Amino acid sequence: ALVHRDGGCIAKGCDAPPAWCDVMHLGAPHAQGGRLTLHTAGLGCRYHHRRYDHHTWQITWTHQRPTLHPPRSRAGPHPER
């Protein structure tokens, strides 16, 4: 079901096919009692799976489909002097 829904890594701009992906917990981690269901799982290549696990990437849901996004840049324009 995840392969059909996600089609590969859910990270925005990543084209890794399902064969290169892990199943990611998108809710509470398994170690914290999180259950793995279609609504709490998504496919992620190893690179993006690790980024998500280290809490640097965020998930958004659109039309019941998850997308993984990089963190927003903390760097902004330089203040005027």
Note the main attributes of this structure.
single chain, 81 residues, alpha+beta, two-stranded antiparallel ribbon, disordered C terminus
Topology:
Blueprint (H helix, E strand, L loop, with lengths): L1 H5 L14 E5 L15 E5 H8 L4 E5 L2 E5 L12
Antiparallel strand pairs: 1-2, 3-4
Task: Give a description of the structure.
Strand 3 and strand 4 (65-69) form a beta hairpin. The chain has 81 residues and is an alpha+beta fold. 20% of the residues are buried. It has one domain. It is built from 2 helices and 4 strands; from the N terminus they run αββαββ. Residues 75-81 have low confidence and may be disordered. The longest helix is centred in the middle third of the chain and has 8 residues, at 46-53. The chain has helices at residues 2-6, 46-53, and strands at 21-25, 41-45, 58-62, 65-69.
Overview in brief:
The protein is α+β, with helices and mostly antiparallel strands and 81 residues long.
Shape: globular
Provide mean pLDDT, rounded: 85
Q: Give me the side-by-side strand order of the main sheet.
A: 1-2
User: Which spans have pLDDT < 50 for at least 5 consecutive residues?
Assistant: 75-81
- How many strands, what sense, and barrel or not for the largest sheet? 2 strands, antiparallel
The CA-CA distance between the termini, in Å, is: 55 Å
Helix content range of the residues, please? 10-25%
Number of strands: 4
Q: What is the string of SSEs from the N terminus onward?
A: HEEHEE
Please give the count of helices: 2
Q: Give the strand content.
A: 15-25%
